Amino acid sequence: MKKIFLIALLLPTLGFSQGKTDTIAVYSKFMAKELKAAVTLPEGHQKEDKNYPVLYLLHGGSGAFNDWHQKVTEPGLVQRMATEYKLIIVTPGVGPASYYYDSPEMDSVKYESYLIEELIPQVDQNYPTLAQKESRAITGLSMGGHGAIMLSAKHPHLFIAAGSMSGVMNIDTRMWKVPEDFRTLRLKGQQEMLGENLNYEAPEFNPYTAVGLTDKMKENKLALIIDCGVDDFLIETNRQMHQLLLANETAHEYIERPGAHTWQYWTEALPVHLLFFDKYLKRD
């Protein structure tokens, strides 16, 4: 049986006037362990007899479920966005460098199944959500950008819109502007998780990487927003994704602006994504 536990307020100082953020733990039968997530509700939700749209907001490769609450350069940004847009924001926690997929090689890496089959149903069961595709969006930073694009492409019945901030659109580290030792370390981890499924060559891109799912994105017709800083080491993977989507005529919003792979950039990017999603999320 699936289990969910309310642990505590993520930020104990939050009161009614600022909304509410819970830390929960959800047991994953796929990985035989509990994983934490934060669930933020808008200000005034206690007085409103209504359900809300939901945004799933994913962290990066070495991050945690509370990154979006503790590392943004504007304290309380997630709570402010939840209240301003009248929605619930869920920030799940997953393993480092897991890319939010199910590894064909490692039973300990089944994060796609966890999010899709365990976390989302548990949130819908325990919080006042509008449990429908039309009221659910997903985005994230870096590895979380990859996760958001990948999960929405593969599970279009669950999401109306998806986004990526400085996302790893292609897990091929040859496209990353990083030191060789970092590239080698990440490549080794990808080989361990994907085994013989590791394939970087176009047009047969690795099906576990976002750029390998552009045909699904065209077919699904989800609302897409992709942005990346011009000084980000992942800028070329984002430009590649943009060109692939242009080539197959998939509608999307693509943004480049000044910035690098930093929390200052993602703090500024989140309100842009919320403004975009607000055009598509249904509230009834």
Task: Characterize this entry briefly.
By secondary structure, the chain is of the alpha/beta class. It is 32% helix and 20% strand. It has helices at 67-70, 77-84, 111-126, 143-154, 180-194, 214-220, 235-247, 263-277, and strands at residues 4-9, 20-28, 33-41, 54-58, 88-92, 136-140, 161-165, 223-229, 253-257.
Give an overview in words:
The chain has 284 residues and is an alpha/beta fold. It has a single domain (4-277), classed as 3-Layer(aba) Sandwich (Rossmann fold). The chain is 32% helix and 20% strand. The protein has helices at 67-70, 77-84, 111-126, 143-154, 180-194, 214-220, 235-247, 263-277; strands at residues 4-9, 20-28, 33-41, 54-58, 88-92, 136-140, 161-165, 223-229, 253-257. It has a nine-stranded mixed beta sheet, with helices on both faces. Strand 8, helix 7 (235-247) and strand 9 form a beta-alpha-beta unit. The protein is globular. The model is unreliable at 1-5 and 7-17 (pLDDT under 50). GO terms for molecular function: acyltransferase activity, transferring groups other than amino-acyl groups; hydrolase activity. This is S-formylglutathione hydrolase FrmB. Keywords: Hydrolase. InterPro entries: AB_hydrolase_fold (IPR029058), Esterase-like (IPR000801), Mycobacterial_A85_antigen (IPR050583).
Approximate helicity band:
25-40%
Number of discrete domains: 1
Shape: globular
CATH homologous superfamily assignment? Alpha/Beta hydrolase fold, catalytic domain
Mean pLDDT: 88
Which architecture does the CATH hierarchy give at level 2?
A: 3-Layer(aba) Sandwich
SS-based structural class? alpha/beta
Number of strands: 9
Estimated radius of gyration: 18 Å
The helix tally amounts to 8
> Briefly, what CATH class?
Alpha Beta
Widest sheet: strand order?
A: 1-2-3-5-4-6-7-8-9
CATH topology, by name, is Rossmann fold
Uncertain runs are 1-5, 7-17
Q: How would you characterize the largest beta sheet?
A: 9 strands, mixed
Order of helices and strands: EEEEHHEHEHEHHEHEH
Strand content: 15-25%
Straight-line N-to-C gap: 30 Å
